Amino acid sequence: MANRTISGANWVHGQDPQHLVEKIIRERIYDSIYWKEDCFGLTAASLMDRAVELTCLGGEFGNHEPTPFLCLVLKMLQLQPEKDIVIDLIKQEDFKYLRALAAFYLRLVGSSKEIYMYLEPLLNDYRKLKVRVGAGYTLTYMDEFVDNLLNQIRVCDVILPHLLQRHILEDNDELEPRESALDDDLESDQDDKTESSPSHQRSDD
Amino acid sequence: MSHRPGQQRQQRPTAQAKRYRAGAPKDYVSDSSDSSEDEAPLQQQKKQAASSSHRTQPASVQIAQKDVKTGIQQEAVSEQVMATDRRMQRLQMAQQRAKAQRKQSSDDEEDEDEQDDEQLARDRQRMKQRALQRAQEEEMTNDALEESEDGESSSEYETDSDDSEEQDTLRSMPKPMFIPKNHRATVLQQEQQKLEEEDREKRLAEELESQRLQSHQLLEEELKKEHIKPVDLEVEEDVDDTDGLDEQAEFEAWKVRELLRIKRDRERRIAQEKEQEELERRREMPEEERLKEDMEHAAKTREKDKGEFTFMQKYYHKGAFYQDMAGKEEIFQRDYSAPTMNDVRKREILPEIMQVKNFGLAGRTKYTHLKDQDTTDRSSPWAQPPSKRSKHHGFSDRDRDRDYEHGRERDRDRQYERERDRDHDRHHERDRDHHYDRERGRDRYRRRD
């Protein structure tokens, strides 16, 4: 009973939101102590309290033990908070792990356009993040993490849903081509070196 | 009915029921008696004397004079009840008997102290006489009381008779000494038991207490453990995720990453654009050009490096996985077509049997190579290429001329034949079926009629 998605939840990508996490991993999360102790009876508000206490990212570590991060991801999928809440959590800058959690959740449930729209600003955030892997920890950065979300297939032991390629959205005029913060620097460098050559930074339509 | 001191002898009740008594019968003489025949007349005389003397006494039951404080209310017993109640009568009888015995035994008590054999024998005699007397008296009283009594008296009579016996045995026993309550063994035992019980209870209580204390302590420890957060023995301290340690360095690192990302995105975009261009171009091309391009592309792909395998070298398949790593890692770039240590370099010097792959292993097959399996008979007409000459049957000059025209082709055919023979010769001696007569068993199953 406690592991069912709340009633009235929208189906994501054509399936139960919790099914975005693979069955085996989902079962391991249900059996984990963190899930049973801390994730019982959470609401959207109390979930944020837990998320604030996060200290690392990660999927499964050691002998197939899920991290609290992953448990909270599943909890969010179960509770299905509003899109507005999620976007607010992404925009807030105080708690980086909460931000990462919200970004991960959006990548799972959001549409391609939303994902590009809200996750690309995070590429400018270069804060350090701890990732729990295997026997210990490694270090990564927020922008690296978000880059993985946008380009990799599998992050934190969760297979990410298909993301449309950016150029398709650009062709459909739904998105503007990406403007990085360093584009200006690059442009200036490029212009200095080779004035005649066509600059490839400007995207063609 | 115990032997109560200080009581007077009472008159026996008048009538008694005839019952079987476990006591001595009328003429009973025990085996231990020395002179049984002599006693009998003596006893009879004594009985008669006793019976005559006892009849005259009045019937009165002596009731205890002392004020014994019991819980039971003591009622005064009326004379009428005294006379009629059988139990009262029996009590009278018993008391009278006891009195008589006491008188008689007062003399004997002195004798008991110095117990010679003769005195013992005399005592025994006297006891027997008295028993006989009593039996006679009881008979008489039984007759008197027969009418008025019910059937519940047997036990009491037995007790009476037992009493009489008891009183005799009592005399042979040591004199009963009164032991005050403090010294009584039974009471002492009881007290000891009580003490033990108390001790046990005390011990139980103490144990419970100690257990409670232990459980309390355990609970304390558990709570303490819960409060103390588990010390992470992992490498958490090594990986530090605090920001702002070195702003500049972090910023620079980010910059590098971001530039790499931009570069990657750009390259992707360029590749996509190129593909688009190619697509456009092909669509614009006419059919023949497209075909030509496709053929060139096919020829190019066919030119793949098969690898240089020696003759009859064991084939090694590269494997279908790790194709994405195939170009990147050094280990995938190696030449896997080179012969290994197992491959024989000079196969010809080996005996023919050993000139096979997998020699000696269970997976060994007789198969060598494809050309070896070829069994075409080159000399037969089928095997020869259709020459232009034989295409047209018949003899005509036109054909001759035509043939002459294609003389070069004929030479070419001949060359082809020569080449063919060369191939054929190379492996012919290895033909394993060389000595096999294929025709041998052909007619074996044909009916020879």
UniProtKB/TrEMBL annotation, chain A:
Residues 175-205 are annotated as: Disordered. Keywords: mRNA processing, mRNA splicing, Nucleus, Spliceosome. One of its GO terms (cellular component) is spliceosomal complex. Residues 191-205 have a biased composition (Basic and acidic residues). It is found in: Nucleus. The keyword NADP does not apply. GO terms for biological process: mRNA splicing, via spliceosome. Required for pre-mRNA splicing. Belongs to the PRP38 family. This is Pre-mRNA-splicing factor 38. It comes from Hesseltinella vesiculosa.
Automatic annotation (TrEMBL), chain B:
Residues 193-210, 394-442 have a biased composition (Basic and acidic residues). Residues 163-375 form the Micro-fibrillar-associated protein 1 C-terminal domain. Residues 1-14, 54-63 have a biased composition (Polar residues). InterPro entries: MFAP1 (IPR033194), MFAP1_C (IPR009730). Pfam families: MFAP1. Residues 43-53 have a biased composition (Low complexity). Residues 107-118, 138-167 have a biased composition (Acidic residues). Residues 1-217, 270-305, 355-449 are annotated as: Disordered. This is Micro-fibrillar-associated protein 1 C-terminal domain-containing protein.
